[in-house]
Design brief:
This protein is an all-beta fold and 289 residues long. The chain is built from one helix and 23 strands. The relative contact order is 0.20.
């Protein structure tokens, strides 16, 4: 485990998957991350790369070849190397191997930087194409935050408040983990989504093209919460495991296959294309209060 800190926060990250493990507010003596109880969901903040979500039949096709890749890709299960560290920042790096090439035929360098600024954690994904042809990928975050944040409060007292008024449906997920062809109504002229554990009975809430670029987890019962900025991420997932005391707020540059997919990687919705020698960068951040 690796630790970075400043006056306000202590943050712990694992080299496996470069996965965020803890955000502890020293001023408030408060932990914000989910505990990772295996009975519900053992992860805390997996990094999704080189795909987000599920592929149809766990398979994509590229240049007439078939490749098998399981849900959310392989980065979350791999060991990253620490390639830079200061007191309040750290960089983890993953590069392609013979093993990854079997599943994903591209030469890449994937840097993840965690940096602190007062009571905010900034997470930056920097992806470089080291190959001789175009590279196709998706990337996203999956952080799980504790709900309730403070003992004595209850899950149903919390809500998500978007920073703009929304008229947005959720895109249902099929039993095979694919995105259905049409959305169902959810947010109608509102910026508030009350949290209930029943909300996730049919898997994650998936949003496309929200007007908002930020969402706040809060309650009217106490002063504590958090705000997540997802500027530059065209998709957002919100999810919790059955009966678990957390909510995931997931900024995505990419999305699961549609039920109508042709399984061709270059045609995949939300896929990012990167030319040889070029880099891609996106950052999301979370502010604790």
């Amino acid at each position: 485990m690796f630790t970075i800190e400043n006056t306000n926060l202590t943050v712990v990250i694992s080299a496996k998957g470069a996965e965020l493990q803890s955000i502890f507010n020293k001023q408030e003596q408060l932990e914000y991350m989910w505990s990772g109880e295996a009975a519900f969901w053992a992860k805390k903040s997996p990094v999704l790369f080189p795909i987000v979500g599920t592929l149809k039949e766990d398979t994509f096709y590229y240049s007439n070849d078939a490749y098998e890749l399981t849900r959310h890709g392989f980065a979350r299960e791999m060991e990253f190397k620490v390639t830079g560290q200061t007191g309040d920042s750290i960089v983890f790096t993953l590069e392609n191997t013979e093993e990854t090439q079997i599943k994903y035929p591209f030469d890449f360098k994937f840097d993840i930087k965690y940096a602190l600024a007062e009571n905010r954690v900034v997470v930056t994904y920097h992806i470089s194409n080291k190959g001789i042809g175009p590279m196709y990928f998706s990337v996203g975050g999956h952080p799980a935050f504790k709900v309730p944040l403070v003992a004595g409060n209850s899950y149903n007292n919390y809500y998500l408040e978007f920073n703009k008024l929304e008229n947005a449906g959720r895109w249902p997920i099929s039993p095979d983990g694919l995105i259905e062809a049409k959305p169902t109504e959810l947010l109608k002229a509102t910026n508030v989504l009350p949290l209930t554990k029943e909300l996730f009975a049919k898997d994650a809430l998936v949003f496309k093209g929200l007007s908002s670029n930020g969402v706040t987890l809060k309650t009217d019962k106490d002063k504590h919460g958090l705000s997540l900025d997802f500027t530059g991420f065209p998709y957002l997932g919100i999810w919790a495991a059955k009966n678990a005391d957390f909510v995931c707020i997931e900024p995505w540059c990419g999305i699961a296959d549609s039920v109508n997919t042709d399984q061709q990687l270059v045609n995949k919705e939300g896929i990012q294309s990167l030319q040889p020698g070029k880099s891609f960068e996106r950052s999301w951040s979370v502010t604790m209060f």
